[in-house]
């Protein structure tokens, strides 16, 4: 059997790091199994779905390294869902209901006042044809509910009805259909909620495993019986823990919280984002993985925590720094050139500054320091200024190379008696305008003799 998984975002906003966690759990599982990854856009909500969001989702996934084997748009498959709905109607499993949202809300409040669960009482099943026609005549349109198989003969006497499955991540699970309301599958305007189109697509595209957030666990019991009602084989289900922001609040596409677009535009490396999205909440250390293949080897569903995990942006900075510090010049040459780094000095420049960069873009801050003119002379005391000028007289002759800094500071130490910070800090301030940064032994050949003399004088 070929493993087939799917990632099914609604194109109503930008993907965030929590969405990526689900996408990667599916992608990496399929990669480990030699399977296929289907990208399915749940875009039947025509008011909120946008083509530009769908395009951005594909861009986001490609940035991470995820290339789907197939792409499906639910908006192009409405006839499949209509056919499935008609089969359910003919079987007496999809029935019309005419309550308004306000009426349903009042029913729930009455039940709550009696300390009863807010379960729909199937009042619509008692409607006569004349009553239905009267509702239609006054302008009401039916929404349609799926009749759960949680009774023996009388649907108004539901009983405990357990649905069991062996969850790929959480292990044995049970849902009691007797405690649930019949789910609405079609709205009054004829549009579909998530459930029916999703099941039809999973069945018709041969999805073998559905891996998603654990906020869908209860839904799974309903969906298993709906698969059966449509004569489809239910896939294997797996539910992973969710990510929250560091404060514990949930992530949302619509607010843009930790969106992949914002992370990409902020200069994060894709594997830093992917590593944290997968490894947070798993047992073991959180490390920057070099590629998706290595990340796939780390993913073990037995390691997934049962509780929600917090996404800490500080961890992302740490991982990104680890990746950036190891990047070869070839991987960043184009980005450095765009910052104004001369091509013939690019390799030396990157070797010198990358250890001080959390993001590749941070290298841009060192471009004017190395290749430009400092806008202002650093504020040095009279003694430090005199020391710097004296040190300038001891500069070695000829072109600067890897040993120039050591040779020069050796002469300065011998001539002035200074050592350690009193020797190095005034020179750093004079040469770079900063009290921190890359090793001056690596920067000095890049700054060059002419700029060095100008900055010391």
TrEMBL record:
Q: Where is this motif: 'HIGH' region?
A: 9-19
Q: Which gene encodes it?
A: gltX
Show where the record puts the motif 'KMSKS' region.
250-254
Say which family it is in: Belongs to the class-I aminoacyl-tRNA synthetase family. Glutamate--tRNA ligase type 1 subfamily.
- One family from Pfam that matches here is Anticodon_2
What positions does the domain Glutamyl/glutaminyl-tRNA synthetase class Ib catalytic occupy?
3-315
Reactions mediated catalytically: tRNA(Glu) + L-glutamate + ATP = L-glutamyl-tRNA(Glu) + AMP + diphosphate
Domain Aminoacyl-tRNA synthetase class I anticodon-binding: from-to ranges: 398-456
Which protein, by its recorded name, is this?
Glutamate--tRNA ligase
PROSITE patterns recorded:
AA_TRNA_LIGASE_I (PS00178)
Name the EC number(s): 6.1.1.17
> What keywords are assigned to this protein?
Aminoacyl-tRNA synthetase, ATP-binding, Cytoplasm, Ligase, Nucleotide-binding, Protein biosynthesis
Q: Where found in the cell?
A: Cytoplasm
Any one Gene Ontology molecular-function term assigned to this protein's record: glutamate-tRNA ligase activity
Per the record, the domain of life is: Bacteria
The entry marks the following residues as binding ATP, namely 253
InterPro entries membership: aa-tRNA-synth_I_cd-bd, aa-tRNA-synth_I_codon-bd_sub2, aa-tRNA-synth_I_CS, aa_tRNA-synth_I_cd-bd_sf, Glu-tRNA-ligase_bac/mito, Glu/Gln-tRNA-synth, Glu/Gln-tRNA-synth_Ib_cat-dom, GluQ/Sye
The record lists the membrane-crossing segments as: none
Q: Name one GO biological process term.
A: glutamyl-tRNA aminoacylation
Q: Does the keyword Cytoplasm apply?
A: yes
- Described purpose of this protein according to its UniProt entry: Catalyzes the attachment of glutamate to tRNA(Glu) in a two-step reaction: glutamate is first activated by ATP to form Glu-AMP and then transferred to the acceptor end of tRNA(Glu).
The record describes its quaternary structure and partners as: Monomer.
One term under GO cellular component = cytosol
